[in-house]
Amino acid sequence: MAGIKSLVKDTAVYGLSSIVGRFLNWGLTPLYVYTFVAAEYGIVSFLYSFTAVALVILNYGMETGFFRFANKSDDPEKVYTTSLWSVLFTSTIFVVLLTLFLPNISGALKLPHHQEYVWLLGVIVAIDAFTNLPFAYLRYKNKAWTFAGIKFASIGVNIGLNLFFILACPRIMESAPGWISWWYTPMGGNAFGIGWIFVANLISTLSVLVLLTPWMTGRRWRFDAPLLSKMLNYSWPLLILGVAGILSQNMGQILIPYLFPHNPEAARTMVGIYGANIKIAIVMVMFTQAFRYAYEPFIFSQAKAEGESQSRAYCDAMKYFVIFGLLIFLGVMFFLPLLKYFVAPGYWAGLRVVPIMMMAELFFGVFFNLSLWYKLTDRTQWGMYFSLLCFALMLGLNLWLVPAIGIPDGYLGCAWAAFISYFIVMVLSYFVGRHYYPLPYQIGRIGAYSVIAVAFYAIAYFTEFPGMMWLTYLIRLMLLATYVCIVGIFENIPFLSARLQKIHKF
User: Fold this and answer.
1) Counting beta carbons within 10 angstroms of the beta carbon of residue 461, is it exposed (0 to 12), middle (13 to 18) or buried (19 or more)?
2) Which residues have a Cβ under 8 Å from the Cβ of 287 and sit 6 or more positions away?
3) Secondary structure (DSSP) of 397-429
4) CA angle 353-354-358, nearest 5°?
């Protein structure tokens, strides 16, 4: 239980930078969707989907490889600096190649007239890939608060610059153009539009690089080629896993423009609507991400333990992940009538994807949780197999469902493709894991909580009173409190159990 308490604490701290941080960045969504039409915002979603894929490629599993070898090595500093040298080299090569072949790459992305957007994002992803290693080092050293502080600083810079470039600069140009025209006009001024989003991102990324400098300097940068070879041998299946996984996650936004080549405006609009609405469902992604930051160091450290305590720690982690994931699902869905105002009314048609994507992301989180069996047994090729299967399912389902549904609602096919694909690989990973690394997961209890959550969602869905929203929210708050009480009783959570006993005695 001590291990679980540590995991919960670290998840909470990392969540400050992941969940709260992404929530603050999520707050920029209204700025974008109220400023730019869906077709323009679609370009942003489209490009960031490719950026996510490029980031995984440029990391090539080195984060997990670092944790694995740093925990096994008598010289973790050498593991760290070897990893840094490797990622620095590949990131530099990436920027050079991007610059040389920028027209070709921009054309392939169907943005031949916006090469500057592609180059800016390419530099951003190269720096992000490099700084991921110092962030991993902070996690290895259990510097959760330092990790969170740097993330928050970057987020603050990004939000501030977005507000400055998109809101303040056009007004300054009207009232006092001399203050900024010397740099604002040559860069395109207000006509640069969504480009300012990428400029703000680049500056905030550079600020992270500066803030992480103390964790890269003051040490001897050693490079061990045999060690790197072992790390790459361990990590290359994770690269395939990561690329297939991130392609699966961003499949819809990537494919839609290519599925409707004769109507690019409508395609970009669908990408914009889909991209804006999954920002609501991203709360589940943020929870999974925060959990992942704490979970990888946790599973490798728990691997040193023995017997029942180790198995119980892993099983409890799974159970509580599902419990909190379902709580987040209910919270978001119960208050969706309020949350929908984060996007402009012109985007509300896409709200239908929110419950589908939230459950899909919960399935993906469980799949990640199950991944410990092939990481601890060094059978990382299984992660590759599952990711390739998920990629194939996602690709096939998108190619079928999106054109079948067509314009303007084709993005619904993307959501259902994610739901079905993640569910299948989650179930398969569980059954294969039982063979190689059997763990006594409390499937019955997890299933019971899932049924309760789905039942409460159904009750809330069919008991909405448009004329009396106060009553609607009261019922939903009671359902949410009931779910928490049920968990508190059956899990014997001290804080909740003590209060429930007092209520019962009263």
Assistant:
1) exposed
2) 15, 19, 324, 325, 328, 365
3) HHHHHHHHH-TTTTHHHHHHHHHHHHHHHHHHH
4) 115
CA 30/CA 36 separation, integer angstroms: 10
* pLDDT 10s digits, 259-284: 998 888 899 899 999 988 888 887 77
> Which residue type does 92 have?
T
In terms of Cα–Cα distance, which of 50, 127, 131, 51 is closest to 95? Answer: 127
Q: Which two tokens stand for residue 204?
A: 């905030």
Q: What residues contact residue 11 under an 8 Å CB cut-off, 6+ apart?
A: 290, 291, 293, 294, 295
Residue numbers in the chain where pLDDT is lower than 70: 1-26, 289-310, 380, 493-506
Length of the chain: 506
- Runs of H (alpha helix) within 27-143: 28-35, 38-59, 62-72, 76-100, 102-108, 115-140
pLDDT digits (tens, 9 = 90+) for 358-401: 999 899 889 888 877 777 777 767 877 888 898 899 999 999 99
Residue 198 CB burial class (10 angstroms; 0-12, 13-18, ≥19) = buried
The answer to whether residues 383 and 238 touch, using CB atoms and an 8 Å cutoff, is yes
Measured distance CA(270)–CA(249) in Å, rounded:
16
